[in-house]
């Protein structure tokens, strides 16, 4: 709609051909503007155009730097507004004109598009349009930040974007690494916050621009999303989520830990998880096997504890990053400690019940029958003889169970109940048992001893319960032919056991024991034992060097 005196060639005439929906500010006298224009005479002949020069016309308004009609016509315009202006000679170049360009007493027509407004009194403008629910810290001077941005001019023209490069802009704040307006506009931001920062040119790239994409005297608008924030002086931060009521032991340097974790960046972007691999992360702590921040953050944890460890990049993967972790990224680890031990640990035994008569204690060589529940330190059940409905039977000290279990079953009486905790180096080691016991797992056995059969002295698989016959060879050699075959030998030994005169080591295959005894006597390996070959154990030659 016309603003003033349309149709009168002696007066300034303004037609607003396009007005944007949003107009946060309008041109006032004293403002600096950047605009494009096409200048023509009433017959349509062009005499000038900023478009032909591929550069806006930049000027202060109301300070006599323009013809009077243009000074008046620009007042009240919005950025992106388009006006058609008719300026009479008295408000243009008058009766003199411009030699060779504008004849005297010319009416001038201008098609004007406003691109930019600012004032020397302007400051950085900040508009936050998204604030995260939690904001534990904000940007301060000397902090290092990672953020995404879209950079536009006031008219909305995009000149740069970190999103297009698919890489954050990473920089220190407040120490001169950024244009002054950006240094100021970022202060006070939270991770996850989104804000629009509008910067006048004298706090940006000034009269010269940046020599590439940003023209001189341009106001800049940055739409910023803050992803990350830390200070080079930061240490790790720890937030305890779940701490078990009973914490008999806390991790120390040199311990070996098994833990689950989710790893994210500060803005919540996921980068790794042990849960997705369905396997704990297993490592020594305090010895440089993991990043420095985790080495520190895993100290002092309890089994079953859940904590959040926030690691600044200088204690994480530094400026270079690794894999899908960007350089200079703060890392957030939500961990759950499954178990830990120390290579110097031995087994732990806790007796829960002993019968009144607990005088006969298990020892090496005894044959034991017992029930057990086997679990991990976090309570995960691995195995149970109660569920199977049958006992587990072994000869103590014969290598039939892991070393820690062998140790844990010693000096136990029938009816006793105890818990045995076995570190992995006395259990199933780093390899574990595929599909059953995780590698490097601490094991917990709840045991009840049901039966104990006393074993034989160490080194014996058969003993006599009484005096040995002086004619032993002759008694075994029933047919009196001077040689004993395996059948004769086996029949005789079993007869002695049946009558109670002899005893085989319990828990082993009796036939295998007898066969081994026979083989030991058959010294020349001819399948028969002669009188001169036959010797009792106490008649064997002693080998002190062994």
From TrEMBL:
Residues 464-499, 509-544 form the EF-hand domain. It catalyses: [protein]-peptidylproline (omega=180) = [protein]-peptidylproline (omega=0). It comes from the Eukaryota. Keywords: Calcium, Endoplasmic reticulum, Glycoprotein, Isomerase, Metal-binding, Repeat, Rotamase, Signal. SUPFAM superfamilies: EF-hand (SSF47473), FKBP-like (SSF54534). Its EC number is 5.2.1.8. It is an enzyme of class 5 (isomerase). This is peptidylprolyl isomerase. It comes from Neovison vison.
């Amino acid at each position: 709609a016309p603003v003033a005196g349309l149709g009168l060639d002696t007066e300034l005439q303004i037609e607003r051909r396009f007005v944007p929906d949003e107009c946060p500010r309008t041109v006032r006298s004293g403002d600096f503007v950047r605009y494009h224009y096409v200048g023509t005479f009433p017959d349509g002949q062009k005499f000038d155009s900023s478009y032909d020069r591929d550069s806006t016309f930049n000027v202060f308004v109301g300070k006599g730097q323009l013809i009077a009609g243009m000074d008046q016509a620009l007042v009240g315009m919005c950025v992106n507004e388009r006006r058609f202006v008719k300026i009479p000679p008295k408000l243009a170049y008058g009766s003199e004109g411009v030699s060779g360009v504008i004849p005297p007493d010319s009416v001038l027509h201008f098609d004007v598009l406003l691109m930019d407004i600012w004032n020397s009194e302007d400051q950085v403008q900040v508009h936050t349009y998204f604030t995260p629910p939690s904001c534990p810290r904000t940007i301060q001077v000397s902090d290092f930040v990672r953020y995404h941005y879209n950079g536009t001019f006031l008219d909305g023209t995009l000149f740069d974007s970190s999103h297009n490069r698919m890489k954050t802009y990473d920089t220190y704040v407040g120490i001169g690494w950024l244009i002054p307006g950006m240094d100021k506009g970022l202060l006070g931001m939270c991770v996850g916050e989104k804000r629009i920062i509008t910067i006048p040119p004298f706090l940006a790239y000034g009269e010269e621009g940046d020599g590439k994409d940003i023209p001189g005297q341009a106001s800049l608008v940055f739409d910023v999303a803050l992803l990350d924030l830390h200070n080079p002086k930061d240490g790790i931060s720890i937030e305890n989520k779940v701490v078990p009521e009973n914490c008999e032991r806390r991790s120390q340097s040199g311990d070996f830990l098994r833990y689950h974790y989710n790893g994210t960046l500060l803005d919540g972007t996921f980068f790794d998880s042990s849960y997705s691999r369905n396997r704990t992360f297993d490592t020594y702590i305090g010895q440089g096997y993991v990043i420095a921040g985790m080495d520190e953050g895993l100290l002092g944890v309890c089994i079953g504890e859940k904590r959040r460890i926030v690691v600044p990049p200088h204690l994480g993967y530094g400026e270079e990053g690794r894999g899908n972790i960007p350089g200079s990224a703060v890392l957030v680890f939500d961990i759950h400690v499954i178990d830990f031990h120390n290579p110097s640990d031995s087994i732990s035994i806790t007796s829960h019940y002993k019968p009144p008569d607990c005088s006969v204690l298990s020892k090496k060589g005894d044959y034991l029958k017992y029930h057990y529940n086997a679990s991990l330190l976090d309570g995960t059940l691995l195995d149970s003889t109660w569920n199977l409905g049958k006992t587990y039977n072994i000869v103590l000290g014969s290598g039939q169970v892991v070393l820690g279990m062998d140790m844990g079953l010693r000096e136990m009486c029938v009816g006793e109940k105890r818990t045995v905790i076995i570190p992995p180096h006395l259990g199933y080691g780093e390899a574990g048992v595929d599909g059953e016991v995780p590698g490097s797992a601490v094991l917990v056995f709840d045991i009840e001893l049901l039966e104990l059969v006393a074993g034989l002295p160490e080194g014996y698989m058969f003993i006599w319960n009484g005096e040995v016959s002086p004619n032993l060879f002759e008694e075994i050699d029933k047919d009196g032919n001077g040689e004993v075959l395996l059948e004769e030998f086996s029949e005789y030994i079993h007869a002695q056991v049946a009558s109670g005169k002899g005893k085989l080591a319990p828990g082993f295959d009796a036939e295998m024991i007898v066969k081994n005894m026979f083989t030991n006597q058959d010294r020349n390996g001819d399948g028969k034992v002669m009188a001169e070959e036959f010797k009792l154990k106490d008649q064997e030659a002693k080998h002190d060097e062994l």
